[in-house]
Amino acid sequence: MAKVVAVTGNEAVANALRQVNPDVCGIYPITPQTDMMQRYASFISNGKVDTEAILVESEHSSMSACIGASAAGGRVVTATSSQGLALMWEMLHIASGDRLPIIMPVVNRALSAPLNIHGDHSDAMGARDTGWIQIWSENAQEAYDNTVQSFRVGEHMDIRLPVMVCLDGFIISHSIERMEYLEDAEVKKFVGEFKNLFPLLDLDKPKSYGPLILTDLYHEYKRAQHEVMTKVKDVVLDVAKDFEKLSGRKYGLFETYRLEDAEIALVILNSAAGTSKDVVDEFRNKGIKAGLLKPRLFRPFPYEEVAEALGNTKAVCVMDRADSFGGYGPLFMEVSSALYHLKERPLLINKIYGLGGRDYMPSHAELVLNELAEIAKSGKIRTYKEYIGVRE
Amino acid sequence: MATLNLKELSKKEDLLTHGHRMCSGCGAPTVVKMVLLATEYPVIASNATGCLEVSTCISEYTAWKIPWIHTAFENAAATLSGVETMYRSLKKQGKIDKDIKFIAFGGDGGTYDIGFQSLSGAMERGHDMIYICYDNGAYMNTGIQRSSATPLGADTTTCPAGDVIPGKLRARKNLTKIMAAHNIPYAAQASPSHWMDLMKKVQKAHEIPGPKFINILSPCNRGWRSKTNDAITLSRLGVNSCYWPLYEIENGVTKITYTPKDKVPVADFMKPQGRFKHLFDPQNAELLKRVQDEVDAEWAKLQKEEKCG
């Protein structure tokens, strides 16, 4: 029986972790994640979980300790944001290179400088190429559901990769929303027992982790990482199918909203997708065929599926809450790569919005959809990349 | 604790096998072998990036007969703290029943410098592990760059002895004492020249629950610009000159474990090493004197600390 609650995103994810009951958890504070691991620490102190915490002295050590713990053989989690994720960067590659299924909620926050504690996607986008699976979440319910599912994805015997579950800092991490918890026993059963693969703690079969590999084999190791990523989509969909049976909530590689017959569309991640859907409805009410695509699995990116979903539109705006300065927004680069192979493809523009927690308002979506309607009609693009919501 | 009998020890299996690719005459594999020979429990090792790491596990070949993990340069302690925590978690849950010991190995660059925070954190958290620093006094793996363990006056590739600057102008960081200041139950200094002393310290450390730190002098003939057959001779001179005194700090109490009968001038330790060659030029006489003065002062301080108990 599902339990309906009103909780913050941080509380929801902390409870998902409690229900999974991992063996080891790396804990280090950083806004806006702090409150999630604080809650988890109280589960440990009050005997709600079997987890041993490592109260590290930095995020670099947190990821290092998580790698050690995961290689030792067991289920490992940690969580971070922003500068913390940036400090982990070196170790993120080592977690994925060693094929360790560590689960890490990332409460998305802007990067310094200037210092800013609010939500944008610069942190996780900066970790795009670290070899981690990335699953993004619109609200507390999705963050909770994705966290539960992430264990099945990362720990799958054909995959064995670390997973980031992304949710927006403050907007989701600190806002109270209505959502539904699964029963503890249901989650436990869904996630299942952790299966070991080459544990260091197996003294009878000693393993060496982290060799030096030069020009002879490094290239092959990296190709193996690429190949395993190609299998992730199917596992994500299989796990989502099982999860739907349990929860009634349906998940795919991305969510489409009124996209089927849409002529203009927004591609937008996480919480801002919610705001945008309301505006899409308003445009539909006015008789304008607007739609939306909200990516869920960002790494690996489902290029073919995204191309198919957007292929029949006339104009698309990819909305980025992060920038690659001197280039396009990171989400735009993926979507344009996806569409390139189509014979007929929509006209594509890129808007950068909401950096450092700048509000994303319905009026912003309205402005962009109006511009898309104009592009669809005229076939002319005024500007390919533009910041919106800027104080002039 | 088994007694250390050379004949019996010679029959024990080497847990770091031959066939590794450390340089001929390097002190580090000798140090590791002594540490592992003194270990009478199942043991898991963590290794910082460095000479020892790149030379002992390459592609599909490993010289380690024990479970071993290397992740990066600055985090052998943090990585091992994760392994040790998983062990405790699984033991608590009844999923593992063996008694396992944990040892981290790092060079001075990976320990004194870039790995200092990770080491300090792991020691403060109280993980049950021994951290072994094999101290050769510079970043030898990348080609002899200065570290905070590089001795005063030494010539390295980043503090080269030139016409204006005569090598390193700062004294070494006293890491053994800094680790003792973490109030860990056991911190010690050892040298492969005094194998019995070294191995006794390792044995003792294994019997003490909690975090332990042992700093071991590890000659590097490439960086010290010395001969390939003098690692033991030089480490003995290091001890006998009191450049590298052998002592332990157990629960805050300092004990000098070996006092040289005839303390030799530090110049005796330095002379066979090319990295100090320039200090024997007349214009550097003052710097050479400063090296001796600092060694004497540190030694006097250590003796005073021992007297205080």
Q: Identify the strand order in the major beta sheet of chain A.
A: 10-12-11-14-15-16
Strand content of chain B: 15-25%
Determine the CATH superfamily of chain B: Thiamin diphosphate (ThDP)-binding fold, Pyr/PP domains
Shape by Cα distribution of chain B: globular
CATH architecture of chain B: 3-Layer(aba) Sandwich
Tally of individual domains of chain B: 1
Count the E strands of chain B.
Answer: 10
Q: What form of chain A results from the Cα inertia axes?
A: globular
Helix content of chain A: 40-55%
Instruction: Write down the CATH topology of chain B.
Output: Rossmann fold
Report how far the terminal alpha carbons of chain A are from each other. 52 Å
Tally of domains of chain A: 2
Rounded to the nearest angstrom, the radius of gyration of chain B is 19 Å
Extract low-pLDDT stretches of chain B: none
Q: How would you describe this structure to a colleague?
A:
The complex is a heterodimer of chains A (392) and B (309). Chain A contains 13 helices and 16 strands. Chain A has 2 domains: 3-183 and 205-247, Thiamin diphosphate (ThDP)-binding fold, Pyr/PP domains (Rossmann fold); 255-387, 3-Layer(aba) Sandwich (Rossmann fold), CATH 3.40.50. By secondary structure, chain A is α/β, with parallel strands linked by helices. The radius of gyration of chain A is 21 Å and the shape is globular. By secondary structure, chain B is an alpha/beta fold. An 8-stranded mixed β-sheet of chain B has the order 4-1-5-6-8-7-9-10, sandwiched between helices. A two-stranded antiparallel sheet of chain B has the order 2-3. Chain B is globular and about 65 Å long. The model of chain B has no long low-confidence stretch (mean pLDDT 97). At the A-B interface, β3, α3, α4 and β9 of A face β1, β2, β4, α4 and α6 of B.
